[in-house]
């Protein structure tokens, strides 16, 4: 387990009824924590960029998986959930671009950006993804 954790996994996040979605959430939490720990241990920028790229790819795969379950939601909730995914991927891609650009690369700045992404993600799992799996 990482020394520095941004996202603490708990039963709270275990959404009943869909093992794959739970496993993917668990894995994504782990990647965010790995990234956070690496930043705090003064890890090199290439490693930080590399993990962020994996996080982006896995998040894309996870969202695609969730979107196969959207038929369970009313149309307006599908639209909203899809929009959340789109905005999050844009924010994560922008974070990766900033890392690549080397502009404003202080530990404080990177940490703030990662914290904001992590907060969004945690809230999304609890408030949006929970609606996807509860009707299984
Ligand atoms: Fe999710
Ligand atoms: Fe979602």
Descriptive keywords:
mainly alpha; binds fe (ii) ion; 73% helix; 136 residues; 0% strand
Task: Give your account of this protein's structure.
By secondary structure, this protein is mostly helical. It has one domain (21-34, 50-133). 73% of the residues lie in helices and 0% in strands. It contains four helices and no strands. It has helices at 19-40, 45-67, 75-101, 107-133. Helix 1 (19-40) runs antiparallel to helix 2 and helix 1 (19-40) runs antiparallel to helix 4. It is globular.
Domains, number = 1
- Beta content comes to under 5%
Find the structural class using helix and strand composition. Answer: mainly alpha
The dominant shape is: globular
Number of strands: 0
**Distance, first to last CA:** 32 Å
Query: Measured on Cα atoms, how large is the radius of gyration?
Result: 15 Å
SSE order, one letter for each helix or strand:
HHHH
Write the layout of secondary structure elements.
Layout (H helix, E strand, L loop, with lengths): L18 H22 L4 H23 L7 H27 L5 H27 L3
Helix pairs in contact: 1-2, 1-4, 2-3, 3-4
Bound molecules: fe (ii) ion (FE2) (2 copies).
One fe (ii) ion binds next to helix 3 and helix 4.
Family: Belongs to the hemerythrin family.
Protein name: Hemerythrin-like domain-containing protein
Keywords: Iron, Metal-binding
What's this, in brief?
With 136 residues, the protein is an all-alpha fold. It is built from four helices and no strands. The chain has one domain (21-34, 50-133).
